[in-house]
Amino acid sequence: MLSVSGLQSAYGPSQVLFDVELGVGEGEVVTLLGRNGMGKTTTVRSIMGLLKPSAGTVRFTGREVSGATPETVARLGVGLVPEGRQTFPTLTVRENLVATASNRLKRQNPWTLERVYALFPRLGERAGQAAGTLSGGEQQMLAVGRALMTNPKLLILDEATEGLAPVIRAEIWRCIEALKAEGQSILLIDKNIHVLKRLADRHYILEKGRTVWSGSSAELTANADLVHRYVGI
Ligand SMILES: Nc1ncnc2c1ncn2[C@@H]1O[C@H](COP(=O)(O)OP(=O)(O)OP(=O)(O)O)[C@@H](O)[C@H]1O
User: Fold this and answer.
1) How far apart are CA 93 and CA 144, in angstroms?
2) pLDDT in tens, 146-165
3) According to CATH, what is the number of the domain 2-231?
């Protein structure tokens, strides 16, 4: 579904990605791991068309999308929950959810307000409340709900549980598990490696803008020194 190969990206003169390789198959949950500043968010920005790669390829559902606009990438079916949530603060929860909603890919059983409220009952209870007045955890749920309302083929979550209270974090994990059970393809960036080992099928580790390791959850578990070296846990 998503295949990234030899990806290089820079911010002006400063090169950040040197050789990123990663892939997400249909119905797979895949993680991108690595310490702070190793290039995870830059990889996501490059996939989404928010940053134009200087070399390498990004293919999504068989189409080359390196250099495509964010609108094109979104229209092809990539939904992003960006780092820092970025919901529309003055719009209500409901307005946020419908603002970018679509089912362009004609998915059966598409996401609707009702389905999002069933997944996150707190959002239903606060449907008429301005997003800016929600707690951090509720805003995160809204960011996930908003991405789902675009009915993406691939959902990318960049640090979706960062800074959340454990109970809220658990709710986000529960939601991701439910999405996985439905066959949703997901690329996850997160630091909760213990949860990720249980939840995800495969993992990639980035070190200074390069993919230095990839493998299954069992392989990751068997390589505690690897995790310590590259992820710092
Ligand atoms: N807009 C920018 N301009 C210049 N350099 C940037 C910019 N954004 C990020 N960088 C640099 O690119 C490198 C990779 O950053 P990136 O945000 O991709 O890392 P990350 O692995 O996602 O880390 P984190 O977990 O801290 O978000 C860092 O050295 C960072 O300082």
Assistant:
1) 12
2) 999 999 999 999 998 888 88
3) 3.40.50.300
Report the nearest-CA residue for atom 12 of ligand 1: 16
Q: What is the complex's ipTM, to 2 decimals?
A: 0.93
Contacts of 95 (CB under 8 A, 6+ apart): 88
CB under 8 Å to 143, separation ≥6 — which residues? 81, 82, 85, 86, 87, 160
User: Does 134 have pLDDT greater than 70?
Assistant: yes
Q: Are 58 and 9 in contact (CB under 8 A)?
A: no
pTM over 0.80: yes
Residue nearest to atom 9 of ligand 1 (CA): 42
What span, in angstroms and rounded, lies between the C-alpha atoms of 220 and 52?
Answer: 31
Cβ neighbours of residue 218 closer than 8 Å, sequence gap 6 or more: none
Q: What is the pLDDT of residue 233?
A: 67
What number is the average pLDDT over the span 61-71?
93
Residue ranges covered by each domain of the chain: 2-231
pLDDT at 136 over 70: yes
Rounded-to-10 torsion of CA 174, 180, 181, 184: 130
- The H or E element spanning position 31 is strand 29-33
Q: Which of 17-21, 126-130, 161-165, 194-198 has the lowest mean pLDDT?
A: 161-165
In this structure, the number of other CB atoms found within 10 A of the CB of residue 20 comes to 27
- Mutating to test ligand 1, I would choose from 17, 18, 31, 41 the residue with most ligand atoms within 8 A of its C-beta, which is 41
